[in-house]
Hints:
This protein has helices at 8-28, 38-52, 120-138, 146-159; strands at residues 56-57, 70-73, 76-78, 93-98, 100-102, 105-106, 109-114, 163-164, 170-172, 179-183, 200-203, 206-208, 214-216, 223-225, 231-233, 236-240, 245-247. The chain is built from four helices and 17 strands. Monomer.
Amino acid sequence: xxIELKSPEDIEQMRISGALAAEQLEMIExxxxxxxxxGELDRICHExxxxxxxxxxxxxxxxxxxxxxxxxVNHVVxxxxxxDDKILKDGDIINIDVTPIKNGFHGDSSKTFFVGKPSVLAxxxxxICQECMYKxxxxxxxxxxxxxxxxxxxxxxxxxxxxxxxxYCGHGIGRIFHDEPQILHYxxxxxxxxxxxGMTFTIEPMINVGKKEVKLLPDEWxxxxxxxxxxAQWEHTILVTNTGYEILTYRSDDKIAKFS
Length: 260
Ligand code: MF3
Ligand code: CO
Ligand code: CO
């Protein structure tokens, strides 16, 4: 098994695609309000991607996915399908996951937004989940192992009595949407492959208030927590550099340095 190392030219393209993903999440924030629908959020992102960014929304028709973004509300873990019937209400949380393709390269990022005013429980879950992603990111450097990332995430989640979803993981990314290596969000430090400069992959932990088990709905996309308790997710696309990491999908609201 060999993991692709990006050339300097590839990395420049990945920076462009990553910046477009970041820009989409910044753009959509003002539209995440009570009374809107996830179908409307999808239309806004689709139009922005295609007409403003001149990019391609990777999710659309990917393995049959019918929309341009994923919208995962409350107990939906990931891969929620936008719908005009899904009206957001005050206190909901929603993960919006975007993946533009520009010049053949993918940028993959997601953020969990608050709709109106969150409960104390929701605010804590969303914050700890973002911290879990950051703990994973700061573990990234040449010579570190993929298991160091998973172990850091799992430790932080379980310290706060949350559970880590096992069925979905981070992934290598570039010209291919979901490539090797798999980046598990749990595991043991020192295990897995060794990281090298030029690798690009996502870190995208899904963290549950209740038990770790999930189930797939009959639409064959929507993943929900088995116990229907709240879940959150955050995702960045990361480059391994000579000195550590670079966050390719970095936004102005991030609470970590863009590079190490
Ligand atoms: N963006 C998701 C990820 O982080 C994948 C979505 S696949 C889709 O890997 F088909 F549901 F869009
Ligand atoms: Co991803
Ligand atoms: Co994603």
